[in-house]
Amino acid sequence: MSHAPSAVPVLTIDGPSGSGKGTISALVAERLGWRLLDSGALYRAVGYAAGMAGLDLSDVEAMTRCAHGTKIQFRPAMDAGETRVVVNGHDATDELRTETAGAAASAIASMPSVREALVALQLGFRKAPGLVADGRDMGTVIFPDAAYKVFLTASAAERAKRRYKQLKEKGLSVTLGGLQREIEARDSRDASRAVAPLKPAEDALLVDTTGMGIDEVVAKVLAVVQP
Ligand code: DC
After folding, report:
1. Could you tell me the sign of the dihedral formed by the alpha carbons of 14, 15, 18, 19, in that order?
2. Is the CB–ligand 1 distance for residue 159 below 6 Å?
3. Does ligand 1 have an atom closer than 6 angstroms to the CB of 17?
4. CB of 140 closer than 6 angstroms to any ligand 1 atom
5. What is the mean pLDDT of residues 60-87?
6. Which pLDDT band, with edges at 50, 70 and 90, does 167 fall under?
7. Are the CB atoms for 52 and 41 separated by under 8 Å?
8. Model pTM greater than 0.90?
9. What's the CATH number where 117 sits?
10. How many domains does the chain have?
């Protein structure tokens, strides 16, 4: 049986970096058996492709062309590990995770024409039996009709600590203070931009995850879909 996209249930999980969105979204999607859209990876992939092509990240026209022309594929990992992100045929998963890639993503994400270029791709993830959409504007712009909406937050200090741990585990060299400054700068840019700024949808459930464990947050988010 095929479903009209609008009949497919969507759970949007928006919030700033380090709020736990990525981890929580993946776990909740797995528990529900729904598909997962990591929309941040799309912006990271376009920024990465632009960097590889030696393009100027402040050139709106070049970035828009790049957003239209970049081939982004999500591949489930072989060993039950994380999904790999393949950009123009190259596995860029590790490169996309760095704060440099995050900053590039945040810069190009402020360009309306770049955001517009990625809309159809994102809508295409809405397939039965359901979709968990992780990002900044999932509940406000991309899936405003989503039945379930959550906005995750956490204090900047806690978010920096989580990112620090994540990046250290990946063997990347970072400092906690530097990371907190980068995160705060990126958040303020994401929240103050003119198009699709980072803000909770009016009908989203706000969850402050400061001091909460992963299982506790997952249970709270799952309860939104399965009360
Ligand atoms: O979620 P993330 O850290 O991977 O996102 C990287 C950047 O991409 C983020 O700083 C802002 C941008 N972004 C966006 O503007 N809209 C989204 N839906 C997701 C990410």
Report:
1. negative
2. no
3. yes
4. no
5. 90
6. confident
7. no
8. yes
9. 3.40.50.300
10. 1
Report CA(1)–ligand 1 centroid distance (Å). 34
Q: Three-class SS of residue 214? A: helix
Beta strand segments in the chain, E: 10-14, 35-38, 72-75, 84-87, 90-91, 131-135, 148-153, 205-208
Three-state SS sequence of 68-87: HHCCEEEECCCCCCCCEEEE
Which tokens in the block code for residue 179?
């990371």
Retrieve residue 121's tokens. Answer: 């791709």
Q: Is residue 122 part of a domain?
A: yes
Alpha carbon 204 to chain centroid distance? 17
First-to-last alpha carbon distance for the chain, in angstroms, is: 27
Angle at 16 between CA 11 and CA 22, to 5 degrees: 55
- The domain in which residue 211 lies consists of 8-225
**119 Cα: distance to centroid of ligand 1 (angstroms):** 14
Amino acid occupying residue 117: A
Looking at residue 93, its pLDDT comes to 95
C-alpha closest to that of 42 among 63, 28, 27: 63
Pick the closest to residue 137 from 31, 8, 33, 42 (CA basis).
42
